[in-house]
Each structure stands twice: as structure tokens, then as C-alpha cells.
Amino acid sequence: MDEQDTGLPTDEMARIRALLRPPPIPGVDDWNIPPEPTGVCDPEIEAKLAQFHALKRDAVHPKHFNDSLMSNRSFRNPHLYAKLVEFVDVNERTTNFPKDIWDPDDVREEWFADRIAEYQKTRSEQQQAAQAANTGKRTHLEFTSAKLDSSKSRDRDHDERDRGGKQSGGKRYNPYVKDQYGRDKGRGWK
């Protein structure tokens, strides 16, 4: 593949390939992928693959194997996956990594949902107990009255009027009040 095929310079393609290439596994060459076989391929397998490629690349009616599977009525069974796994005897939790890098069977008990729920319940109970112990310490607040000088009382009257208090008769201005036709009343006092 060169610049004419993709429209990208070859050095750009090399950079993209380098970014997409997964990091090597220490002590394992080429991710333990076996080399390409040198022997002759089975002619029946080659013929079958050639037939699938021809069906897929048909200009008039292209067919893909997965599309034909999905359109097959017997594959619409919701339990089909479980039956196929059982029939083929596939271990769904296996991995291609060596056990020292990733072991899917190394599952700790505290990772299960019931253990997590128990931990959350215990933690919640502890927090509630700590909160109850802290709230019992202070049950009463002492309030003292302060003298009001005349300047503060004027400020308070002014604040009450602005908030719709004494001076305005308890009414507050509402700019969103509309009349029966949906028009702005202009005064908006409620």
C-alpha cells in the first residue's frame, strides 16, 4: 500500500501503524503468533474460502456470511448463544495471555456483587452510627438578642421593602405575570 492507495504519505502510514501496534510482551516473540505455515493448503478449504469471497464481492447481490446467518430464522433464538457455546464446548473466560500475565480464574471473593453489597451496607451503617454519635453532642443553641441602633433599623426597613416586606404591602414585583391573552401586564405585582 503506497501513497496512491490511501492518499497518505508512506511515512505517515508507517507512523499510524507504529501507533496502532500493541506493545510487545516481555519474553515473548511476536506475541506468540506462530509463523506462517510452509506446507500446501487443503484445496477444499481454499475452494470454500474462494466461494465466500466470490459471494461477498458479487457486484449485483453481495452476500456476507454474517448477514446470511443473521437473516436465518433459526438464529433468532435468544438462547442460541448459550447453546452454541455448550455445543462447541468453548470456555468463555479463557485468554490467549500466559497465566503469569493474566489469569481469568484468579478472582477474589471481594470482587463479587454480594460481597460488595455487604461491604457497602457495613460502611453505611458505620457512617450512620458515627453521624448519630456526632449529632448527640450538640442539641441546643443559645441565642442572645442584640440592641438595634436607629441606622440598622432603617436598613432593615429598606431591605424588607425591597424584598416585598412592610412598605410594599407584602407584594413583590413579578415581571412574568401575563394577562388572560398572554400579554405582559407591565405592572406584574402579585
Automatic annotation (TrEMBL):
Region (Disordered): 122-190
Cellular component GO terms held in the UniProt record: nucleus
Highest taxon above the source species: Eukaryota
Biased composition range(s): Polar residues: 125-136
Feature: compositional bias, Basic and acidic residues: 149-165, 180-190
GO biological process assignments: regulation of DNA-templated transcription
Entry-linked InterPro entries: SAP30BP
Protein's name according to its UniProt entry: HCNGP-domain-containing protein
Native source species: Phanerochaete carnosa (strain HHB-10118-sp) (White-rot fungus)
